[in-house]
Structures are given as C-alpha cells and as structure tokens.
Amino acid sequence: MTTLLIAEHDHASLKDVTNKALTAAAQLGAPVDVLVAGENAGGAAEAAAKLKGVAKVLLADSPAYAHDLAEPLAALIRSLAPGYDAFVAPATSRFKNVMPRVAALLDVMQVSEIIKVVAPDTFERPIYAGNAIQTVKSRDAKKVITVRTSTFAATGDGGSAPVEAVAAAADPGLSSFVGEAVAKNNRPELSSARIIVSGGRGMRSRANFTKYLEPLADKLGAGVGASRAAVDAGYAPNDWQVGQTGKVVAPDLYIAIGISGAIQHLAGMKDSKVIVAINKDGDAPIFQVADYGLVADLYQAVPELTEELGKLGR
Amino acid sequence: MKILVPVKRVVDFNVQIRVKGDGSGVDLARVKMSMNPFDEIAIEEAVRLQEAGKATEVVLVSIGPAEAAETIRTGLSMGADRGILIRSEAPVEPLAVAKLLRAVVEEEGPGLIILGKQAIDDDSNQTGQMLAALLGWAQATFASKLEVDGAYFKVTREVDGGLQTVRLKGPAIVTTDLRLNEPRYATLPNIMKAKKKPIVERAADLYGVDLAPRLEVLRTTEPPGRKAGVKVKDVAELVSKLRNEAGVI
Fold first, then answer.
1. Under CATH, which number does the domain B2-246 receive?
2. ipTM of this complex > 0.95?
3. What is the end-to-end Cα distance of chain B in Å, rounded?
4. Interface test with B, best of A176, A180, A273 (most B CBs within 10 A)
C-alpha cells in the first residue's frame, strides 16, 4: 500500500497547496511518495524531499510537462499506477484538469475536493456549493482523490527523502501549448494568503479597486479577491474570483467589501476563521456569516480603515 | 462537423437547498429544477459555431429521469437541432455518464463535444475529462474562448493565475467556464419550434454500461453553522475588535 501525491509547483519551487495535500495524503495511512512532473523541476523535487514523512520523490523532468497539458501528464501518472493504491493531488486548476482523466484511464471514480479523511476509503466532500457535506466510501481498488487544501494544515520540513528520476511516458501528442497570460500580482496568492480583502459589485469600477481596496490589502499584506459580479463587470481579473466556480479560500481574516453574499460566493469563503463584512445594505446576506459587520458606505469606511491600520503601524 | 452537447437537469442555482434530517440526502421534492448553468453556456457556444457556419448540427444528450426531456427541450429552444434522452431513474456517477456518452459518440460521430465544467449539484468537475480519456481525445477544460482552426481547436482556458491557450487536435472535448459567453434566452417562436424537434428516448441499461455507483454515500449532513456575529458601529470599533477580540491583525 503506497500513496502517490502529485505536487503542485512552478518547477523551481513547491507551492504551499502541496504541503497541505500531503497532510491529507498521509492520513490515508500508507507511505507517501511525491511525483514532481515538470521541466527543469529539480528545485521543486529538492523541496519535496525535505517535507516531513515523504518516503521518496519521483522526478519526471521533460519538456512534455512544461505547460500543464492534461494528456501527457495523465499518461505519466497512469504509467506509474501499478506501484500505487492511491493518487492524491491538490484541487488546483491543473489537477482538476488532469486527475479525472487519470481516474477514467484506471476505470475508477474520482473523489473530488475532499475536506476530511474519515478512513482510508471514506471521505467527506462538499456538494451543492458547500450547502451540504457528503460522506462517501469508495469501492474502487485504486483511489483518485483531489484535496480542498483550505481545510488541511500544511506539513512542514523535517524529511530527507531520496529523489529518483522517472522516465517520461509516451506523449499522445493530442494538444500543444500556444501561450499564457499570467496576471501580474505581487500580493500573496489567494489560496495561501493569511488575510484576504475582497470586493464585489459595490466597488462600481476597476479604478475603485485600485483606489480603495488595494491600498487596504497592501496595508494588511493581504491577497485581493473578488465576487463573480465584480469579475463579470470587469472590475477585477477572473483569477481573483472567490466562490463555487472560482477559488475556495479559508484565510484567518476575510474582509468582504461591497459583496452581498450570494450562495455561490459564500461557498468559496465561509470556512474563513474571521469574516468581516462592510456593506451599506444592512440586510445583505453576507451579514449572516460575518463575525463583524459594519453597515457603512465603503467609500468612507475603507479609507478610514486603511488609515486606522496605518496608525497601528501596519 | 457535428457538435454533441451533454446537458444535466439540476436544482436551480438560486434555490437554497435543504438537507434531510435523517442524513439520507438533499430534499429535492417540489424544488425548482433547471438546466445546469455551465451546460447553457455549452449549448450557446455550439449554436454560435453553427450560426458561424463551422458546425452542421447540434445534438443534445441528457441522462436522467423522464423530466430531463424538459431540459433537452429548453436547449432545443436555444437553437439545438435534436435530442437524445437516456433514461435512468437512479443517479448516475460521472464515470458511468462518461461511458454512456462514449457509446453515444460512437453512434453519432461528433467532431466536437462541449460540456459544462461542472454540475452545480455534485460539484464533481469530472465528466468531460473522463470522456476525453475514454475516447483518447484531446481536452481543454475551463474554456473562456474557443476558435475552430481547420481540423484543430484553439482554446483559451481559465487557470489559477491567469489564462492559458492550447491547440487541440480534433475531434476534441471542451468544457465551458462562466466567461465563455452569455447564453441567450429562448424566444416564444423558438420555444414553439422546439416542440417539433425530435427527442429520441432510450433506457440506460440498453448500453451495457455498469451503472452501479462506485462511491457509496454513507450520509449527507448540513455544514457546520457559523456563530452569529455582531454589528459594529464604526471603523474604530471594528479595528479594536479585530485586534483585541479576534487577534487577527
């Protein structure tokens, strides 16, 4: 019985979600190997080898894995399948793309976005935009699992696993990479930020995000998020979207500004430790989940809040 | 080129669902049902490709109870040509759905299959990827832009951190993200016309696919509720609470 954790990384280094998914993978009770598939990904493999409890790191270094294409990556994981009973990956866009393909190649059902390991074959996962929690028991011999990392603590360093090179699998040659547009952002990534400041339709323009919300985020060292309404209106780029169809986050502090609190948005943030809502509509549903609510015009309250924080030396 | 669009009947996205007290599931009796929103986007894209002369026919397929015919009819009124209903009273998991769809693909021979990226009831986000694997086709999930380029498809995908563009060799599978398009409303004349469009109905067990669930649902519960919060009177009080009571800043 061995578990294979597939690492999320940017080739040079590991991403925080990998450390969190490792915690879930270890709870299956079997030794955990980590697969790093990428191009010039030795740095990420070294980082994985240092994580506590990792038995072995497999490094598949090939241009075929440079751009997150599903077909070659699924073929690689499948080629490693005989040695493993469970395949675990963080539920990032990369692995939401590839893991169901792996599951079908193995003729098993994937268990999507688990929030708890009840037993090695039994898991909790949210359904209906987080409005119900389902406990499912997998009858499949091999398990394919994606992990909602916001509910697992990160595993720290303390290991020294060997790194082994593994051969690339044959590339089916079905797709090719054309290009990418990466949003420029010096702030913490949403999925690992300790504080998130998020804006909704009430922000009314992209310029207001820049003028009101971003200075507050910078003061707090926070990531910036947005509701779907704000993204659809063009006030914020789509990779800022928090919700059922965007990112699911669980920071220590989530500040929702000008966000009404639709079901789909709450699905993405209601596991935050402390939620603050600033909204001029005192009846907005966001106040039902907020620990601290301020009924106020955001154009006055947000600059005031930024200033108050400045006085505290932030 | 024929385009196949699988569609699912789900609880309407505006409904606040209720978990049954005995843990046996979500109460779906007398709840408003609609087409999964991502599937509407898939139909819209297929119909636009047909209007642009890039597709010859748009075929819808749904797997579910008799009422799923209404979902197909909704899609026909948006401009799709005909429908296939695969009858199953019991819920069917994504893997079995993908296997049933593979059988339909073998009969219909589409050049492109467009699916929603996920259904808003089970939130699995699996079926498109699984179907691509079973067929050995290329896949582009979470599409925000789709262009037909001869025998290839150029697709821009929404990924963590931004956008990625890939080129797929056809036939291929694309799953839709929210920003791919704005689905049209069916007009009254089109709703009338859709009533005459054909829907073929077949029993799911005719396909020889094992429909037994691989995931046994042990129970369904309400998520833990949050403690009621407080309203603060001003920014100073908010900052003080965050600092001294919650200890988060």
1. 3.40.50.620
2. yes
3. 58
4. A180
